Every structure is written in C-alpha cells, then in structure tokens.
Amino acid sequence: MNSELPGGGLRDGALAEAFLEMLAAERGASLNTLVAYRRDLDDFRAVTGRLAAATVHDVQQYLSGLAVRGFAATSQARRLSALRQFFRFLVAESVRSDDPTATAEPPKPRRGLPKLLSVADVDRLLGTARDEASYAALTPVRRLSALRLLTLLELLYATGLRVSELVSLPASAGRGARPFIGVRGKGGRERLVPLNNAAHIALSEYRAAPAALGRPDGKWLFPADSAQGHLTRQAFARDLKTVAERAGLDASKLSPHVLRHAFATHLLSGGADLRVVQMLLGHADISTTQIYTHVLDERLRQLVNDHHPLAER
Questions:
Q1: pTM for this structure?
Q2: Gap between the Cα atoms of 247 and 121, Å rounded
Q3: Which long-range contacts (CB under 8 A, 24 or more apart) does 18-26 make?
Q4: Dihedral sign from CA coordinates of 215, 219, 225, 226
Q5: Any bridge partners for residue 184, and if so which?
Q6: Residue 294 annotated among the catalytic residues of the structure
Q7: Domains of the chain by start residue, with CATH
Q8: Is 14 left (phi over 0), alpha (psi -120 to 50) or beta?
Q9: 3-state secondary structure of 230
C-alpha cells in the first residue's frame, strides 16, 4: 500500500479514507466503529486545522479541549485511541516518521462514589445474622459457622477493616482488656481500631464456641473450614451474599467492600472527622478518604434547605 500513499502527498481526507478502508478490510471493523472513527478524525481536523501533519502540541491542545468541552474521561480516551491508531497507520505507511500521540496519556476516569448501604440495610443484615446465630436448633458445628459469620459482619461494620485484613486476623486479635484490635495494613502500617459493644460481644461468644467443641486454639481468628489456613476473602463474600439474600437485600450489590464503605459513610454522616475516618480505614493519603465526602455535601445541602429563610421560595 506504500505506492498508494507516497510520503504525505495525499490530502487529509484521502488519508483518513485509506485508514478507514484498512480498518474495514484488515481488522473487520463494524460500520458503527468506522462512523465513530471518521467523526473523531473530522473533529480533530476541525479543531486543529490539520490532520496528517499534526504536531505533539496539536494533540495535547486537542485533548485538553475535550475536557473543557465536557467530554467524559472515557470519551476522551476513545478519541485518543482513534487518533493513535490513525497516526500509527501513517507511520507504518511511511507517510510520516513519528507518532504525535506516542507520549499522550489517556485521562484517568473519575473515581465513582462507593455503593451506598443505608443504616437500615446494615441493621437488617446484622439482625438476620444474629437471629441465625442464636437459633436454638443449630448443631454445635452449624452454630460455630453462624457465629463466625456474625462476628465477621460485626467486626467489619464496627472497624471498616479491609476484607484481607479481617479474614487474616490472628487468633490473639482483640484478646486484651481494652476493646481494640491491632491491624497490620497496606505497606506494613499498623493501626489500632476500636470495637463497639456489639462487635465485642459477638467476638467473645465466637471465641467460646470452638472450646465447646473441644477444638484447640489455632493460628487464625477465622480459620478456614479446611485443615489449614484462614478463611478466604471469596468464602466470606459468598457467605455474606447468602445472608444478605435471607435478609431480603439485593445480594448482587453487597460485598465486604460495600460494608467497609458503609462504615466510613455512616461515620461521616454522623459527624466524624475526615482524618479520624482516614486513620480508621488505614488510608495513607487523605485524598483516598475524600471520596466519602459526598455525604458531607448532602448534610450541608440539607442544612441549608432546613434553615435558610428563603430556601422554599
């Protein structure tokens, strides 16, 4: 195809057509894909005034302009992908020797808000787990399993631990006189997290259950059902979804991470300081914790609506 595209002698429109023909013939691109790519190339040329001869500066300015024009990060990334494929095509066909998109970085998508779980939802979830753990007809083994799940849920909502931190707690966790759990988190950073009364009671009852079965203390607070190791994240997530279904909640939207989000969100909406929540969650950077400030925004909006003298006008 080099003979058809000698050294940039063709106009931008012809080069774009040759590129689209290649996509259709060699890559089997659909009509919708071809239409989208043509639109992207036409828009770039309309904004920068050129296409095949574009510079690195042209590409940078164009991408910056997309954000100003209100394009989402995913749309910006798609347009960059279209341009990158076009210029790589030109390089492969010896139309130009460099790719002006080579150093361009796609925009990072904005972090979405965590899935929300209401206080009532959490109360229903924990209530169901408590009822099942106290069911009189359970065999000792089934009771131990139910107590383990209840304790996992109570600890997770009381502490906001990462699921990997929770399931790998040592057997000694929370044994001290004070209701605290020591955690070694990401990067080996240690933190001390307080337990509420419900979590402390659940933990105490759970600790007593293996002794009633004659089981010796092991290495892990939550040992796996197999002979060795601790409970896996996947096994806990599965058990969580099961009890969520029995509680009448949408299990597809529930995970250990969602319960961790609920811990942080409910603390903030109750008036907790952001830096305290940062410490409890084990975030090294407060910017990671700031994703939860949407609840503070909602509190401020409600405060204005409730107390501003002209809010209802």
A1: 0.59
A2: 9
A3: 18/89, 18/93, 19/85, 19/86, 19/89, 19/90, 22/89, 23/85
A4: negative
A5: 190
A6: no
A7: 2-92 (1.10.150.130), 119-305 (1.10.443.10)
A8: alpha
A9: strand
The one catalytic residue in 57, 186, 238, 301 is 186
Catalytic residue among 37, 62, 157, 292: 292
- State the catalytic residue, choosing from 148, 162, 200, 230: 162
Q: Angle at which helices 140-159 and 256-269 pack, to 10 degrees? A: 40
Amino acid at 283: H
d(CA 163, CA 93): 52
Q: Would you call 186 a catalytic residue per the annotation?
A: yes
Catalytic residue (choose from 78, 130, 257, 294): 257
- Annotation says 283 is catalytic: yes
182 pLDDT band, cuts 50/70/90, is confident
Closest CA to 183 of 174, 191, 171, 175: 191
The single-letter code of the amino acid at 91 is V
Could you say which of 260, 266, 301, 308 is catalytic?
260
pLDDT in tens, 233-287: 999 999 999 999 999 999 988 999 999 989 998 988 888 888 888 888 888 777 7
Q: Nearest-5° angle of CA 164, CA 168, CA 173?
A: 125
User: Quick one: tokens of 32?
Assistant: 């919708």
> Percent of the chain beyond pLDDT 70?
85
